[in-house]
Design goal:
Blueprint (H helix, E strand, L loop, with lengths): L3 E7 L3 E7 L5 E8 L11 E2 L1 H18 L7 E8 L5 E4 L9 E2 L7 H8 L8 H4 L8 H11 L3 H6 L3 E4 L1 H10 L3 E3 H4 L5 E2 L4 E2 L1 H7 L8 E3 L6 E2 L8 E7 H8 L20
Parallel strand pairs: 1-5, 5-14, 9-12
Antiparallel strand pairs: 1-2, 2-3, 4-7, 6-8, 10-11, 13-14
Length: 266
């Protein structure tokens, strides 16, 4: 019987892989930082390929340190930095631009433009979110409008959008999916239907063909490829929601609070 589960923790500054035993104790972990790319003040980017390479490396390092193999893992799950936006070629798996990080504020002019018609809370009833540079919808809009040929290719189904969970899942299991917690932070999912909202897609100018399939946060989505060959991929949670569960907030009325740093200024 397999005795361990694995967790990929892909954060804003680093990627980690942790192996837990049946009692929830850590038996192995490895961590590697990635670059913070700041082309100009207020712009924050990550190299998606560097994140993939680091994630693969820490998986191998943690397993080797504990003398484990993928066969020893009952399942693996993913938690990730939310809102960070990746756009990649469906056929090659190559990103068409660096990821736009949740801290990035280059879409502030778009926020102001959208807020002129309906105010900051224009989409709050459907999404629970105010208009802000934080969320993924306007970051994706910026990529579609500023990367050459991106909009045409996205409308033709040749490009995939995802937050970092989707980017990792594409590499890990060949699936273009996201869970409801990450989808809720794009400002494109309707909280009542738990699906992409056609009114929001039209308003933001986002082609549905580019979007991942929304799935539950806990189920077996598929089976991993190397370096976790054959391991069931069985959970996705955005980092704040994962922290909520990790701190045992299971009952209505319980809460946690995380204070995030401000976006870098230079």
């Amino acid at each position: 019987m397999t005795r361990f589960v694995g967790a990929i923790d892909q954060g804003t500054t680093s990627s980690r892989f942790i192996v837990f035993d049946r009692a929830g104790q850590t038996v192995a972990q490895a961590q590697r930082e990635h670059r913070q790319i700041m082309p100009q003040p207020g712009w924050v980017e990550h190299d998606p390929l560097e994140i993939l390479a680091n994630t693969r490396s820490v998986i191998q390092e943690a397993l080797e340190s504990a003398e484990l193999s993928p066969r020893d893992l009952a399942a693996v799950g993913i938690t990730n930095q939310r809102e960070t936006t990746v756009l990649w070629d469906r056929a090659t798996g190559r990103p068409v631009h660096n990821a736009l990080v949740w801290q990035d504020t280059r879409v502030d002019p778009l926020v102001a433009e959208f807020a002129r018609d309906g105010g900051q809370d224009r989409f709050r009833a459907a999404t629970g979110l105010p208009l802000a540079s934080y969320f993924s919808a306007l970051k994706l809009r910026w990529l579609l409008d500023n990367v050459p040929e991106a909009r045409r290719r996205a409308e033709g189904g040749d490009l995939c959008f995802g937050t970092v969970d989707s980017w990792l899942m594409q590499d890990l299991a060949g699936l273009h999916v996201t869970d409801v917690t990450n989808a809720s932070r794009t400002q494109l999912m309707n909280l009542a239907t738990l699906d992409w909202d056609p009114v929001l897609l039209f308003a933001f100018g986002i082609p549905r063909a580019v979007l991942p399939r929304i799935v539950p946060s806990s189920c077996v989505y598929g089976f991993a490829r190397a370096p976790l060959e054959g391991v069931p991929v069985a959970g996705i949670l955005g980092d704040q929601q994962a922290a909520l569960m990790g701190q045992a907030c299971f009952d209505p009325g319980e809460a946690k609070n995380t204070t995030a740093p401000a976006a870098p200024c230079c």
